[in-house]
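Box 3.1 A note on notation
Throughout this textbook, protein chains are presented in two layers. The first layer is the amino acid sequence; the second is a token string describing backbone geometry. Keep the layers aligned when reading.
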Amino acid sequence: MGAVIASGASYKNSMTGNAGLNFAAWQLSRRGWHVMPTVRNMRGSDLIVTDSEETQFFGVQSKALSKRHAVPLGKSLSGLRSTWWIITVHANTDEPICYVLTREEVKRLSTQDANGGAYWLSASAYDRDEFREAWHRIGTAPGEPNE
């Protein structure tokens, strides 16, 4: 039997997610980090990152968007696990823009729908100079030359 191919919006969303994930992995790899994608659509980090000596490990949550939109966070912030969050806007274009935030910043800057609904990270919350292309916040892997 052949593979089932997603159609329409589902396919486009999947390609946007893949583009953002791979762009984030490339950016981290350029800085000397070893990057491994996890199983997609599972709870937890999208990328596991380590240095070459495997003495430092951290998880990255990748959120990729085709346009500058709010990022959905779910019904509870207690499930946010990844140390770093990378939000890639215009992920499937030639000029993606990444915003680098910590888990604590995502929690602090999030808002909740009325009556205990879902949490969101609005575009105005993450689209700030302090987060824009702020790869220096994660830094380079130990033993790697600085950029």
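Residues 1-5 have pLDDT under 50 and may be disordered. The domain at 8-137 is CATH 3.40.1350.10 (Trna Endonuclease; Chain: A, domain 1).
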